[in-house]
Write a structure and sequence with these properties.
With about 280 residues, the protein is an alpha/beta fold. Helices cover about 40% and strands about 20% of the residues. Bound molecules: pantoate.
Length: about 280
């Protein structure tokens, strides 16, 4: 396949390329990533391409969303392989800036974007500052790329909700599209962090999705003792070899406590296998 992928690392050529497309009246879709691309990312790219004339992907391992002692240094950086995948996927532009380009005055001096409340629960409670890092980089990338729409995976359900709130609160003119989680054949949600798993951990990992499915089935049957369901699920994950971080049944509309109203529910979990933290969720449809 002949490549029409342009790779750009600086802001000025990014802006002029996108401005040229805009002058032609082209619709632009954007998929922000941290690279180490897998079939889940490529599914977001395919959705972006379906919805627009031009597809921009960013690869930037964002230091601001990693806490002290997290895997920033170990996070897989595979730009060459990623570029080949993006060529095959028909992407028009890869924006791959350096940390200096994104944070010229340093991460600590960067203006921050905080979506209050929703950023401090679930993953935000375990990873303080994580969603400020996510909201800040996504807001900044939106300003840099100025796409008509952006596509995000529902695997990061809370992240998607933080981004939707940020876009609404700050009146950012971009449409946010959520895309269902892509899974391995055994149900494990695709994630760059799956590569950290040992063969034994990889064998156990699909139990996270199976446990969510079991909770979801009980909810569909009318079970409403949420605390009991959450505790039972945590116990079975622990027995299987996980160290559960949280397991929560929440409103799928705002991640608040489920009410008796007919609001849709989502079951969300984070659990460690060794030092690898996996997250997953299921919407109870
Ligand atoms: O989901 C991710 O890969 C990242 O959190 C994102 C949205 C690219 C921001 O760095």
């Amino acid at each position: 396949m002949s490549s029409s992928l342009q790779t750009i690392a600086e802001l000025e050529p990014l802006r002029s390329t996108i401005a040229a497309w805009r002058r032609l009246g082209e619709r632009i879709a954007f998929v922000p990533t941290m690279g180490n691309l897998h079939a889940g990312h490529l599914d977001l790219v395919a959705e972006a391409r379906r919805r627009a004339d031009r597809c921009v992907v960013s690869i930037f391992v964002n230091p601001m969303q990693f806490g002290a002692g997290e895997d920033l240094d170990a996070y897989p950086r595979t730009l060459r392989e990623d570029t080949e995948k993006l060529v095959q996927a028909g992407v028009d532009l890869l924006f791959a800036p350096t940390v200096k380009t994104v944070y010229p005055t340093g991460v600590d001096h960067q203006t921050r974007v905080e979506v209050p409340g929703i950023s401090d629960i679930l993953c935000g409670a375990s990873r303080p500052g994580h969603f400020v890092g996510v909201a800040t980089i996504v807001c900044k990338l939106f300003n840099m790329v100025q796409a008509d729409l952006a596509v995000f995976g529902e695997k990061d359900f809370q992240q998607l909700m933080v981004i939707r709130r940020m876009v609404a609160d700050l009146a950012i003119p971009v449409e946010i599209v959520g895309k269902a989680t892509v899974r391995e054949a055994d149900g494990l949600a695709m994630s760059s962090r799956n590569g950290y798993l040992t063969p034994d951990q990889r064998r156990i990992a699909p139990l996270l999705n199976q446990t969510l499915a079991a909770t979801s089935a009980l909810l569909k049957c009318g079970e409403r003792d949420y605390a009991r369901l959450e505790e039972a699920a945590k116990d079975s994950l622990q027995t299987a070899g996980f160290r559960p971080d949280y397991y929560a049944i929440r409103s799928a509309l705002d991640l608040g406590a489920p009410s008796d109203r007919q609001a849709p529910l989502v079951v969300l979990a984070a659990a460690y296998l060794g030092t690898t933290r996996l997250i997953d969720n299921l919407i109870v449809a």
